[in-house]
Amino acid sequence: MKIINTDVVIIGAGPVGLFQVFELGLQGLKSVVIDSLSSVGGQCSELYPDKPIYDIPAIPKTIAKDIVNNLWQQASPFKPKILLSERVEHIEKQSDNDFLVSTNKNRTIHCKAVVIAAGNGAFSHVKLKIPAIEKFNESQIFYRINHLEQFRDQELVVLGGGDAALDWALSLQKIAANVVLIHRSTNFKASPYSVNKMRSLCEQEKMQFLCGQVKGFSEQDDLLTSISVSSKDGVSRRISLDKLLVCFGMSPKLGPIADWKLRLHQNQIEVDTQHFQTSISGIYAVGDINYYPGKRKLILSGFHEAALAAFSIASKVFDKSRIPTLYTTTSPVVHKRMGVQVELADLMD
Ligand code: FAD
């Protein structure tokens, strides 16, 4: 088995994990980032990519997926290795105080420090629980959308009543041959604006809504051809389809983190507020996963925590009692690490 060597392993590629790459990079430290999801961005990408955010410092208004893109761009000069669709299972402290981090894909990474930026735990999509239907996953059944074009001119069924279900149904209605939204109730978690828009499109016969629950499916020649839906009125209907988009939301699970013998406060990892270190020296926790008195689960809190954790890790790795604060505006050391060319004239004035 090949072991990857790096300075720091970051568990979680949410906004805070991505910013941690940047802060470690400024300190001259290399990182490997691991996420159980198939793309970076954590909650921002999975739960509210197109929603506006107003409380990111110096950005009056943006949308969540743009924050993720910008964080990724900001971290990229430090060339982190990103391992996606991979869950960290174990952290083992070695006698020399280094760590071996291992994943569910039998990969092992050797590092000097670990930063847990795992949000609410490893995310996974809430699945459609119909026996044997999972064989159509990724061919006809999808839990997330990578390419809108795959739904062009398709008979599409969307399941769910939250923002993701409504947003996708409304967007895909413009390119699919037909869209049927199915939700178990007429109460929606989605925004009233989206629900009203959906109702208006149904009135115009541009899409359909059905209140009910999927109970079974039919197939022919290895293709999913229809689902059966039972409604509260007791009537069962068969809905033909080409593609099925399931938007039942994400379920976060603390999962393996609970077994790492870290001191927990309910489901969060206790840290000190000077270093953001956990009860195990060399293991840090930043972002939504950590707990300290006064903790707020906000992106900007995570950014601050990531900066201080990086200073602390640098002082450990380089065995220095104090790491100087270097400004990105003026420090040639930092510019070299970032690979940016700064003209002397830019530094004057
Ligand atoms: P996350 O974004 O949760 O990312 C953690 C990542 O770690 C996940 O991708 C997960 O898959 C991964 N992971 C966990 N365990 C493992 C493991 N064992 N192995 C591999 N990967 C693992 N905050 C604001 O500041 N302003 C807002 O306006 C705002 N609006 C919000 C709106 C909504 C609807 C929601 C749900 C949240 C909002 N938040 C907002 C909160 C904000 O999204 C979180 O504070 C932020 O995402 C936390 O970032 P994070 O990197 O700590 O964790």
Explain how this protein is built.
This protein has 349 residues and is an alpha/beta fold. Helix content is 23%, strand content 28%. It contains eight helices and 24 strands. The strands form seven sheets. It has a five-stranded parallel sheet, covered by helices on one side. The chain has a five-stranded parallel sheet with strand order 12-19-13-14-15, with helices on one face. Helix 1 (15-26) packs parallel to helix 3 (64-75), helix 1 packs parallel to helix 6 (299-317) and helix 4 packs parallel to helix 5. The chain is elongated. The protein starts with a strand and ends with a helix.
Task: List the topology elements.
Elements lengths: L2 E3 L2 E4 L3 H12 L4 E4 L7 H5 L5 E2 L8 E2 H12 L5 E3 L4 E6 L5 E5 L4 E4 L1 E4 L5 E4 L15 E2 L12 E5 L3 H10 L5 E6 L8 H12 L4 E4 L1 E8 L2 E8 L5 E5 L2 E4 L3 E4 L10 E2 L2 E3 L12 E3 L4 E2 L7 H19 L14 H7 L5 H4 L2
Helix pairs in contact: 1-3, 1-6, 4-5
Bound molecules: flavin-adenine dinucleotide.
